[in-house]
């Protein structure tokens, strides 16, 4: 399985330069816009998503899934390797961003408070990535990466529309008169610490990731590649 | 008794407009079987079922005495497979491809792979996308052979190759089976290649096996019969397969020349007919056309 995981990185050697460029550009953009704490979250998202998308696309473009299933490798192993490489890239990006954050803080470039907020935003964005990948990968294993990317596009549009709609709806709530359930939700969150929220979400993300993997295995084992 | 390395029994695979219909044949260890048929006859479908790349609906496939579905990993470890089309990571090098694929086989030998690359004239440092179609086929063959497989399954390995390269590859196959440990199942619509090296021939048409037997006895048994149109009659026509009628005469093939001759003599005591050896091409064309 390790060879399959490494393969996902090796076939994208050339893309790392692009990723570095994207990271640099977005870092400057958010830092200049006064949203330095958003930098690492916003840099990680396109790189992680781009990496996974590219790995899937390379197999689709070259039809190399046909090669892999003709080797003495179980289809289950091919799926496991894809999930491990997805988890690996998320962890690598988290480590890289953390290391850079610590360095910048050590050199006094970023204030500690912003660093702390940056970590929290990074953690939430990592969890969001895990949830999105957990939805994306089973679709890719069922239908192929190109169709999955098209469906994913609608998913992102849907998420964007839902969050925009929610924010407009919240803005329209007359001051001092929020609905009962919102008051209860806010007081519930106020009673839980940010660490507890992160832990709960992390547990949910891991469960979703594992369920997603099982689903992908089922889809891929049934998929006719020829 | 010869060990049967591959046994296909009653294989059925259904598609909307095509099906493999109770395909059965077997290959003993140490021999080459040519799997012949026209395009769309079902050769690749059969091979993909053997390799467990597609699920079949009925029948059984045993390789090395093992059920190919239940023991697919063990079986694939001992098979070298060359598919009809070559699938590689185009941006990666030959060397990387060998290392990646080789890591999955227990008996992979790097020195074998390097020797084959050298024999085929393939530069290890080249990227896959820089190789020609013929080079990619040769690379596939090198990858299939480098782990000393007990069974080589080749799906149209010589199509798209020039005659010089085809001949090289056929010579290589002949060399491989010298030690009688390896067997080869080799599908092709180029009957001359099959004729050159196969010990057994299986002919498939429209998803059904027409013939599966030793090549020498097949070529010995079937003869082309030619006679003038004046001797054409229903009684003789039914004894021939793939009958063609021209302006001056008719021809067909028969696997029972003795009986044909006896009926001909009875019907036309003064008549004459000619016989010729039937090549594999002729046998295939005549039998397939009739089906």
At a glance:
The complex is a heterodimer of chains A (226) and B (291). Chain A contains nine helices and no strands.
Describe the structure.
The complex is a heterodimer of chains A (226) and B (291). Chain A has one domain (2-147, 192-222). The longest helix of chain A is centred in the middle third of the chain and has 32 residues, at 75-106. Chain A contains nine helices and no strands. Chain A has helices spanning 2-10, 15-32, 39-62, 64-70, 75-106, 112-143, 145-172, 180-191, 194-222. The model of chain A has no long low-confidence stretch (mean pLDDT 84). Chain B has two domains: 4-215, 3-Layer(aba) Sandwich (Rossmann fold); 222-290, 2-Layer Sandwich (Alpha-Beta Plaits). A six-stranded mixed beta sheet of chain B has the order 6-7-8-3-9-10, with helices on both faces. Chain B has a four-stranded antiparallel beta sheet with strand order 2-1-4-5, with helices on one face. In chain B, a hairpin with a 4-residue loop joins strand 1 (4-14) and strand 2 (19-28). In chain B, helix 4 (110-120) packs antiparallel against helix 5 (133-145). Chain B is elongated and about 70 Å long. The mean pLDDT of chain B is 93. The A-B interface holds A 3, 7, 10-11, 14, 58, 62-64, 66-67, 69-74, 224-226 and B 48, 51, 53-55, 73-74, 76-77, 81, 83, 85, 87-92, 96, 100-101, 103-105.
């Amino acid at each position: 399985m390790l060879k399959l995981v490494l393969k996902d990185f090796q076939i994208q050697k050339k893309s790392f330069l692009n990723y570095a460029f994207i990271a640099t550009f977005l870092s400057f953009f958010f830092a200049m816009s006064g949203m330095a704490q958003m930098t690492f979250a916003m840099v990680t998202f396109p790189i992680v998503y781009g990496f996974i998308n590219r790995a899937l696309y390379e197999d689709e473009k070259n039809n190399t899934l046909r090669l892999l299933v003709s080797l003495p490798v179980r289809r289950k192993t091919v799926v496991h390797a894809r999930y491990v490489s997805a988890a690996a890239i998320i962890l690598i990006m988290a480590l890289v961003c953390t290391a850079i954050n610590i360095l910048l803080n050590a050199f006094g470039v970023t204030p500690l408070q912003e660093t702390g907020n940056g970590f929290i935003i990074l953690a939430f964005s990592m969890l969001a990535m895990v949830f999105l990948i957990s939805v994306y990968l089973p679709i890719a294993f069922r239908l192929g990466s190109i169709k999955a990317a098209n469906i994913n596009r609608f998913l992102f549009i849907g998420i964007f529309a839902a969050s925009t709609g929610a924010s407009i709806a919240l803005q329209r709530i007359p001051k001092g008169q929020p609905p009962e359930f919102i008051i209860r939700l806010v007081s519930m969150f106020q009673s839980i610490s940010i660490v507890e929220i992160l832990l709960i979400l992390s547990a949910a993300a891991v469960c979703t990731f594992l369920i997603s993997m099982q689903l992908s295995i089922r889809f891929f084992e049934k998929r006719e590649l020829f | 008794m010869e060990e049967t390395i591959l046994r296909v029994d009653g294989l059925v695979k259904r598609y909307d407009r095509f099906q493999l219909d109770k395909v059965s044949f077997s290959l003993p260890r140490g021999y080459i079987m040519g799997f012949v048929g026209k395009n769309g006859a079902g050769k690749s479908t059969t091979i993909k079922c053997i390799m467990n790349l597609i699920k079949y609906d009925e029948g059984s496939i045993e390789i090395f005495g093992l059920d190919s579905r239940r023991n697919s990993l063990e079986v694939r470890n001992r098979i070298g497979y060359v598919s009809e089309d070559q699938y590689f990571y185009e941006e990666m090098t030959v060397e990387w491809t060998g290392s990646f694929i080789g890591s999955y086989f227990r008996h992979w030998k790097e020195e074998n792979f390097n020797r084959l690359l050298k024999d085929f004239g393939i530069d290890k440092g080249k990227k896959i996308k820089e190789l020609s179609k013929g080079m990619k086929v040769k690379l596939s063959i090198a990858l299939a052979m480098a782990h000393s497989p007990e069974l080589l399954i080749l799906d149209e390995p010589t199509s798209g190759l020039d005659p010089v390269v085809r001949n090289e590859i056929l010579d290589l196959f002949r060399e491989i089976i010298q030690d009688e440990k390896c067997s080869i199942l080799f599908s092709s619509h180029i009957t001359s290649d099959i004729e050159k090296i196969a010990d057994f021939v299986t002919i498939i048409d429209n998803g059904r096996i027409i013939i599966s037997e030793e090549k020498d006895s097949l070529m010995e048994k079937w003869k082309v019969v030619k006679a003038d149109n004046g001797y054409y009659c229903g009684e003789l026509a039914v004894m021939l397969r793939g009958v063609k009628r021209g302006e001056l005469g008719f021809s067909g093939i028969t696997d029972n020349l003795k009986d044909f001759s006896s009926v001909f003599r009875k019907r036309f005591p003064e008549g004459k007919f000619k016989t010729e050896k039937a090549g594999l091409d002729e046998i295939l064309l005549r039998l397939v056309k009739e089906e």
